[in-house]
């Protein structure tokens, strides 16, 4: 759901994970039901924010979404790998900045720079959509408080049920406010999930799919997926996808936790 056109630099650590879970089945995407809920613009959730590129040290525009997840260092984000590493390139983007709760040009909690990107070797070498997940280590741009200490964090869940209800949060790149949407989550092949909600366009890539959160995405939830994977999250704004968070993604998460 985002097109990476910025120059990539090999400034981040890329680490392989365990054996691939297999490639995604590729049936033709469906059409969102006329009864599918629409996304709703809102004032934001503190643990979810916009990912910005920078030019000359200044924010140049947000292009993806990320969320803070539990980590011992209190400094970890999860997003889509295609937001940080060109598929198959093994090279990570530099100059990324995370602004949690961003809205209307405001940074209500501050901003954190991305210092390390960890993706699975299956993405870094081949762009395998089943591994379109990245974990980003951050540091504060101002002050010395880690992002989790300021805004809290979401839990992260692996081997979660493939069906159920989730709430998506994302930052459309054409808007200065985030959107949320609650809808059904279900399997798309063996290694992907599908989430039907009109109104999740480019820029929402990397946004979390949360279980256990309130209907309007407030309150702590658990990340069971991110907008990404098949078609880099979806070819239209109506239907989104996520890699299934199974053993392979869990291994990438453990690698990120160990990179200190």
Topology:
Blueprint: E1 40-41, E2 48-55, E3 58-68, E4 76-79, E5 97-100, E6 112-119, H1 121-126, E7 134-140, H2 147-151, E8 155-156, E9 164-170, E10 179-188, E11 192-196, E12 208-211, E13 222-226, E14 239-243, H3 247-258
Parallel strand pairs: 8-13
Antiparallel strand pairs: 1-10, 2-3, 2-5, 3-4, 4-7, 5-6, 6-7, 9-10, 9-12, 10-11, 11-14, 12-13
Structural write-up:
The structure is a single chain. The chain is mainly beta and 260 residues long. Helices cover 9% and strands 32% of the residues. Strand 3 (58-68) and strand 4 (76-79) form a beta hairpin. Strands 1, 8, 9, 10, 11, 12, 13 and 14 form an eight-stranded mixed sheet that branches. Strands 2-3-4-7-6-5 form a six-stranded antiparallel beta barrel.
Summarize the structure.
With 260 residues, the chain is mainly beta. It has helices at residues 121-126, 147-151, 247-258; strands at 40-41, 48-55, 58-68, 76-79, 97-100, 112-119, 134-140, 155-156, 164-170, 179-188, 192-196, 208-211, 222-226, 239-243.
List the keywords.
8-stranded mixed sheet, disordered N terminus, globular, 32% strand, 260 residues, mainly beta
Number of contiguous helices: 3
User: Uncertain regions: pLDDT < 50 for 5+ in a row?
Assistant: 2-35
Q: What is the beta-strand fraction?
A: 25-35%
What's the end-to-end separation, in Å? 31 Å
Structural class: mainly beta
The biggest beta sheet is recorded as: 8 strands, mixed
Order of helices and strands: EEEEEEHEHEEEEEEEH
The portion of residues assigned to helices is under 10%
Task: Give the mean pLDDT.
Answer: 86
User: What is the gyration radius calculated from CA atoms?
Assistant: 16 Å
Total number of beta strands? 14
* Molecular shape: globular
